[in-house]
Amino acid sequence: MSDSAEAAVVRDQPHDLVDLFWTFNRLTLSGFGGVLPFAQRVLVDEKRWLDHAEFVNLLSISQVLPGPNLINLALMVGQRSFGWRGALAALGGMLAAPLLIVLVIAAGYSAWATVPLVHHALRGMELVTAGLVVAMALRLAPVMRRARSAPLWAAAAFAGVGLLRWPLLNVMLALGPAAVLLARYARKTP
To answer: At 32, is the pLDDT very low, low, confident or very high (cuts 50, 70, 90)?
Structure first.
């Protein structure tokens, strides 16, 4: 679908605050630490509240704001739909069940932390989360084709954090302003 045809598609909206709450509650219960691929599928493909470009734009903004990406994304989607009440409903949906689950896990973790099976299960979850992030990046790649330098920035960030083990904050502080300036320059030139 071309960009102009995709822009002409009318997006659905949440029915009410309850729909917004339960959608984000379902998203947050889909997994810990690797929910963004599920969020894209639900918000873009199933609910059609956002198109791919809107999802990428809101995700980009949510990544530079303080706090967890999906919380920021939920706040923006909720606010777009129902103002501050929508933002609170989406935030409540994101935090209610995970808060209870984390409290239960924290209470039980101290008793089972030394069990080898628990340790191995947590290591396996790390790999699943990494795979989900890679899958989301591959799925968003067609949207990023317009930004010709995106692979260069991704490679630089991967090299800094993944290979050189530099702190993420330092890499973001180095690459972020440079990427913004380059994007601004690219918009000015035809």
So the answer is: low
